[in-house]
Amino acid sequence: YIMAFELPKLAYAYDALEPHIDARTMEIHYSKHHQAYATNLNNAIAGTDLEGKSIEYILQNCKDKPAVRNNGGGFWNHNLFWEIMGPNAGGTPTGELAQAINDAFGTFEHFKDEFAKAGTTRFGSGWAWLCVEGGKLVVCSTANQDNPIMGEGCK
């Protein structure tokens, strides 16, 4: 028996991010959209040599399989999405991250502007990313459910 991909347990309630994101939006996004990515990914890899592989391996090696690429990307991207958000998360970074942001963008405010621009100027749907490229932080974006693990966006 090979373990299928499953949604991570949320570390907070659906209403924990209000007023920024309402509970119904969170519930639908988690229980319907994200669940669909997991289910469709599991269906797309069932009976193939990808069964039992890590999501990272799948994303790095399946750019030519649209159902695996889209659903695997959606699954991984949303796992990260839930993990990096939280009711007491966010704010101005400190320590090494703050220094790296200041080195790359000048200020945290300038980083936020660049990040917002990467997201809002992406035609159609997609994601904005903060990545390390050549030892320096960079902002990029990817289309649809693509991500930097696939070799898309930040290089």
Task: Describe this protein's structure.
The chain is mainly α. The protein contains five helices and two strands, in the order H-H-H-H-H-E-E. A hairpin with a 2-residue loop joins strand 1 (126-133) and strand 2. The mean pLDDT is 93.
Please give a quick description of this structure.
With 155 residues, the protein is mainly alpha-helical.
Shape: globular
Kindly estimate the percentage of residues that lie in beta strands according to DSSP. Answer: 5-15%
Q: Low-confidence spans: pLDDT under 50, at least 5 residues?
A: none
| SS content category | mainly alpha
Count of helical segments? 5
Q: Average the pLDDT over all residues and give the rounded result.
A: 93
Strand order of the largest sheet: 1-2
Helix fraction, binned, reads: 40-55%
Distance between the termini: 37 Å
Q: Can you write the helix and strand succession as a string?
A: HHHHHEE
Rg from Cα? 17 Å
How many strands? 2
